[in-house]
Protein 1
Amino acid sequence: MAESNQILSQSGSVYPAPLHVVERAWISPEAYHEMHKRSVTDPEGFWGELAEKELEFFQKWDKVREWNYPNYKWFLNAKMNITHNCLDRHVRDGRGDKIAFIYNNEKNEEEKISYAQLLTRVKKMANALQNLGLQKGDRVAFYMPLTLEQIVAILACARIGVVHTIIFAGFSANALRMRCEIAEAKVVFASTSTSRRGNDIDLMHVVNEAVEGLKCVQNVIVHVRKGDSYSFKSGQLDYQTLLESGSENHEAPALDAEDPLFILYTSGTTGKPKGVLHTQAGYNLFTHFSTRVSFDLHEEDIFWCTADTGWITGHSYIVYGPLSLGVTSVIVEGAPTFPNPGSWWALVEKYKVNVFYTAPTAVRLFMKLGAEWPNKYDLSSLRILGSVGEPINPEAWEWYYEAIGRKNVAVVDTWWQTETGGHMIVTMPSMDQKPGKAGLPFFGVDADVVDRQGNPVAPNAVGFLVVRQPWPSALRTCYGEPERFNNYWMEMKGFYYPGDFATKDEDGYITILGRADDVLNVSGHRIGTAEVESALVAHESIAEAAVIGKPHPIKGESIKAFVIAMNGVQVTDQLIQEVKDSVAKELGKLAQPDEIEFVEGLPKTRSGKIMRRVLKAKEMGTELGDTSTLED
Ligand code: WTA
């Protein structure tokens, strides 16, 4: 990990965007600079005009932005409904037959749904949920794989102002239970199974264990997958029967611009996940506009974002942004390399995907498997390749550009977070691309790289990335924990502080170097060291634990745990495996440590805080840095 103020060498290559991309781009480099300047000096004018042009409101706002530091609101007193913008208006305007989603999976089962069909199903489900007694402001949890059924249910919640909270269907029963409990979810949407690398994974045993005895959950709505049979328990309803019970007539109610849309739990520096809350209008506008301009999407384009709806990327760039824009998206349930490492490229060829958006960890995986796989397919439809979730190293960038993009695409890196709702630092398609550098601030994003005192650092010097003012899709709070929200704006001199180290070059391009806090990024998934540590000490043989991230060629980071055994415990390989399994059980497989090392003691400050930095330096064989606060 870089230290603050270290000067990084200016690494070289610049790739101009291909002419065919530049020619059709919504935003030229000149327009970018002019528009960006206006967006941060006159945010109300900029976003107000855009909202009028891009979205529909049932009642106009009184004021575009109100900023009572650290709180802010956008489009005050406006009335709207995000699903009207995502569905009703497209159908009304004659685009009902346009395909909204092309679904595919590991068994190559295809399903297509048009905007009109999607709207009808959403209306039916919205009625059904209202008949169940759900009301605006209630919370509904999800534990479903990426399916059309899930998207219908998400949108039905949004339509009636019910706040969805999606839990990635790879999390453990404990993790699901904790999230349902703190969100006080009244209903849980679940699926019986999903297929991953050819294995059928039973999801209902996780859900049943999670909701067992949980008072807040009144109903579980179970989507029984094709070929599955399921015996319903009390309080459990069949998804399909429920859907069919709802009438097809449902007017989108006028919701307030600031009504909550969803809560998404993400990792912070404590053991408890943060419930990041987003609201209707600002989020709608920002994801709509960033989908259009970051990916340069036009009416006929086919877009494929490979994320899962359990993460923010799926919320913003599978569901809300593309639908609001009226795009046709490909969605795929399952693993990237199953049944073979060419499966995804076969789908790009089949559906003539124009814009493809994935994570560096996937790119590195494909890179390891070799260019012979993508080489078998016609990928000439691709125009833009997006990247998200972690820094993309120049080698992976160049492989993506050459092996997938055939040197005829723009590679668009996008830095952002669950909290930011949408893209914050982007290399717009028409701009010069610099491998490894995320790019320039998105519209409305007043970003800089500063030192601990909040002063801008010199070009290429390492500092903290900050944002000076709120943008429309900035998180509004951490659900039930406003003090955790305040920390984002109070830790660093009144700026929004995302917790990442960065540099900025002479042209203003920002490079993200990684987290400056105790949060890991494993395969693009955020995992708090504290979460893993508390899962480790929950094991009866473990007294203390400290967790670090180690560079990993594919996952970006891997998890290494240093643990102290309880007195008298014999350390065996079996125990190590058992401890690893217990973390998977506690949190989910994605948080399972790759390595566990038993140690006698852990480096701590005099006040008893574990110095993970020291462990990491020792592990990596690098300088220990300042150890003056080290106890021993
Ligand atoms: C990291 C994912 C470098 C970063 C959308 C951030 C990135 C965290 C990039 C947020 C990128 C995300 N380049 N790092 N293009 N995108 N990150 O909330 O550390 O799951 O703070 O949101 O991922 O992760 P989150």
Note: Confidence is low (pLDDT under 50) at residues 1-10.
Protein 2
Amino acid sequence: MIKVLFVCLGNICRSPMAEAVFNDMLKKSGLDDRIAADSAGTGNWHIGKPPHEGTRALLAEKNISCEGLFARQVTKNDLEEFDYIVAMDAENAGNVRSLAGFSQKPVIRRLLDYVDDCQTEDVPDPYYTGNFEEVYELVEEGCRQLLNDIRRENHL
Ligand code: 4NP
């Protein structure tokens, strides 16, 4: 199984949205038996909480389930377990890289690094902006390109 971990700060807004959107894409393309996604936060404030109501409302509007998602914090073990760590912004990518130390594995990139000619490099934090629609558009495009890359790299 190829394993993908989406990472943001609180694991209640952006990364659970990416997890739900990506898992929905996997299901629809019949790749859910080859690739699996999870999410976590670099912060610990919201451990055990379901996604933010803004994320839940947006996903409901798009008919994408986020049942059973609860916030957790990134651990060192995640670096062993996951093949791709996909951070929502530079700060979170940097924090995961610090945890990884000198290890060359796994691949740690920002979600929007996968999108050619993207206007922004970081997914803005809707916890502060309140704009969940903007986040959804970026997350959806990022997940689509990420999936294309993973398929190409793994001949799927
Ligand atoms: P997220 O958003 O990283 O997309 O889940 C945040 C959620 C909570 C906080 C910050 C960002 N917080 O400071 O509590």
Note: The mean pLDDT is 97.
Protein 3
Amino acid sequence: MSQVEKHTFQAEIQQLLSIVIHSLYTNREVFVRELISNAADACEKWRFLQASGQLPAVEGASGPTITLTSDETTGVLTITDTGVGMTRDELVENLGTIAHSGTKAFLKALAEKQQSADGKLIGQFGVGFYSAFMVAKKVTVHSRTHAADSEGWKWESDGGDGYSIESASDAAPGTRITLELKEDAKEFAKNERLETIIKQYSNFVTFPIELNAKKINTIQAIWARSKNEVKEEEYLEFYKYVGHDFEAPRYRLHFTADAPLSIQALLFVPTRSFELPGMGRTESEVHLYCRKVLIESKPKHLLPEWLRFLRGVVDCEDLPLNVSRERMQDSELMRKLNRALTNRFLKFLAEEAEKSADTFAEFYAQHARYLKEGILADSEHTAAIAKLLRYESSTTEKGKKTSLAEYVKRMPEGQTEIYFLLAPDRAAAEASPYFEVFQAKRYEVLFVEDPVDEFVLDRVREFEGKSLKGAERADLKLEKQNEGALSEDESKALATWLKETLGEEVEEVRASERLVDSPVVVVERDSFMTGSMRRTLKLMGQDRGNSFEESPDLEFNPRHPVVVRLQQLRSSDAETAGLVAHQLLDQARLAAGLLEDPRAMLKRLNQLLSRVVGIPVTPATTPAP
Ligand code: ADP
Ligand code: MG
């Protein structure tokens, strides 16, 4: 003798429904996520009541399940769970009262009894259920609890002004929700469409989800388990799934943290960098979950952009989500989360580098450029990233790299700065005139091959209290070795003559105290930029005003035979001396990476060669520069 009771929704529910249907969610498909989350919550509650002896134990029960069936032709979709189910009063209260979350009430009841469901329940706002009305013209809920004397009930509504409720003796323990899809929402009865949606949002829900007799969520949320319970193969399978990679990852970081939010994260570093030079940036593949349900796929601010090579999952139990659960509400908190994750990851890298330098070298070969980008783009982490930098140096074996920390440890007494020199390769660095003084003093120099590294090291600025300095800018002197050298007066005279001869091409000319084997060197006047830095900026089109036009200073080696001879030659053969002066300047520029077109000096070189082999100079070939 079933009797249908009609109820009108509270006035507020009608307003709420209209908001949910028309504007709360950006995507209609999230109704699947909401209904599955409710089913998962019901299953979780069932499990909890079982475990705590509040429900009779069931023999041979395999645990609760969530089952979906859909029929494209009729446009009917059902979602069935074998979770706790609802009594008549609960149906009325949870589905017919303004923003009433039965889940919140459940948690509160637990808290009063001092028990906890360990943050496993998903619902919290009490509006998710209504999302069904975005796509359904009629929603029917059959429900029944597992109590021995339970009755089944049927709740039904068209999302208008009310709902009906009647007894339903055929309702099985648990809940079955039937959606009669609207004409324009029939796509949600399509098997493939549903499978995609379930996989996207609910793939890691703890309970088995079956869609039209096929199990969908085969991969477990291993990030939520404790490290020593997860097997290597499970990590690998999970990585291949979230990382879209066929290779095993280089590194894996699985950790939990309590501050600033309680998070569980599982991050991977792919063995290879997916970003090909010149092919544009890849996107981060780290997703944000809340209690195993996807909140945002690849959220922009979860990690800094330079960590975009990471793959994995961050799950945050108590995210302050907005009601639609599509975004985190608090951007300040997102920043904190970002900082916490970044710090943790950098610490992890430092530990790994310590553990195995070889594995770290392999990581570095693929991913160093992201770290360097981090230094250039993100001053907050510069110091931590600087510890991870590795370079070849004048003391390492060829092909082996060293860290700044190791460099500092090796610094001899008297050396106060860390030096680096940009050169295309090791041989060029060792032959550079700028290297001479360091070699003579036995100071180590980092050999830097990529022009970007000069900017990076410049940005790092200092390490363990020692400032970093480009070799070209180092203010170092050799002890005087005066044998055969120009006297101070002769040096002054030569400097004056060189300045007159070279004119605007040099700013100032002086005797150098840093050169051993080279006759001359150019020194940048701009104390912040080396020659190659300027050239790099210029190539990038970043001409900073006319600072590029500024000429460098020229330093000559008063002990070098060519220089000593030049001082005499300028009075005996002014023409040849002029050619030599210009040639020396070009060579110095070449060594500094400042000579834009070396072909221009070939003509002068030919003139000099003519003189060497004794061809008389005709007036036509004379003019110098
Ligand atoms: P929330 O999940 O945020 O609590 P919902 O609007 O999604 O809010 O659901 C409202 C309430 O209805 C839930 O808290 C729960 O008590 C109840 N409910 C919804 N779906 C089910 C279900 N499948 N089984 C049992 N109870 C459910
Ligand atoms: Mg819900």
Note: The pocket of adenosine-5'-diphosphate (ligand 1) is lined by residues 34, 38-39, 42, 81, 83-84, 86, 94-95, 101-103, 123-129, 175 (CB under 6 Å).
Protein 4
Amino acid sequence: MQTISLLGATGSIGASTLDVIRRYPNDYRLVSIAGGRRVEELADIAEAFQVETVAVADVTQLDALKAALAKRNLSHVEALAGNDAMEKLASDKRVTTVVQAIVGAAGVAPTFAAAKAGKRLLLANKESVVCGGALLMDTIKANGATLLPVDSEHNAIFQCLDGARDDARQTCRLLLTASGGPFRGRKDLRGITPEEAVAHPKWSMGAKISVDSATLMNKGLEVIEAHWLFDVTPDRIDVVVHPQSVVHSAVVHEDGSMIAQLGATDMRHPIAYAMGYPKRLDAKTERLDLARIATLTFEAPDLETFPLLKMAFEALEAGGGASIVLNAANEIANAAFLARELPFTGIARTVRHMLDTFKAPAPTSVDEILALDEAVRAATREAIAANPSLRTE
Ligand code: NAD
Ligand code: MG
């Protein structure tokens, strides 16, 4: 029996995870859940899964959470609030497994907490790998934690590498597939609305990652994530656009042989794989019918129109704090676009501006990571306010 803490329970990955847990009540027990601020949804999940603890990040929502629990006769359920509560749940002795599905750098501290507590860590929150880098991988190793990637590309690579010899891991190349997002093939990205950007052609996901998919920043973050998870140098990571999203990624061996993982476009599949590993758990997702799909296509990414992917490679090569600058600037620009304060094309311009102007050495502790993230956020907000050139198409 695995006992689980699900962070980001009210999100898209959260919902898919709950669906898999629901199918295997004898193997998995949900002990605690956490979310940003939607307390009614949290209380509904608490009721459905009979959890012991519920946490909400927004401290102003604690009373509302308690009331929502009381309304469902769940006053005995422990209610917590604030960022510290996320770390508490991630390191809780009652759980063997932490599913980390918080969005953004808010996930950094809980990811480190789960790593320090030696948990089985099912990680969807890619931003914590991008920010945590070598320090996170060292913390995982030093504390005997097990990292199982949930991001579909990394889950695919993890499956492709399973059983590969160490020397093969040191010479292989990684091929990350990208759907290309809703604006694939377009050369002019002016005038794009948030509604158009979040309407992803293949995946149904939270708003932030949907916008990241539309700018290709998501693939950039995933390149950095792959570098740290699999210890592969940036020159051995390639990206190919594959609009059908059937091939989830591949490993290319020294002799040119390519091992790929294919599956339905459904996050319950990688989640179930991570939950069951090393056994396979059937999430009852749709089976692939290759004859019906008939055609799989591939093309090179358009780095001119979608420069954020190139900037991610650049940040990774630059080292130091550059990946944290890239991620924090993107989070602020992404949110500003969703709030209609920045045009779509302003996201890439803002990240470019921040990479050029904000230089920082590699942080050596979690506190330093969080401080750098905060400083870049503040500087990015200031830059957007002060530079009309970032705000006009
Ligand atoms: P989402 O926006 O649907 O959900 C985010 C969740 O995080 C919500 O439950 C929200 O309440 C919670 N949250 C937000 N701020 C928080 C905070 N400060 N503290 C605690 N909880 C907080 O996002 P999503 O699409 O589910 O994505 C979650 C993560 O998984 C992201 O890092 C994303 O990149 C990654 N991911 C998602 C998908 C996908 O298909 N959705 C695929 C691969 C990776
Ligand atoms: Mg992905």
Note: The chain has a mean pLDDT of 97.
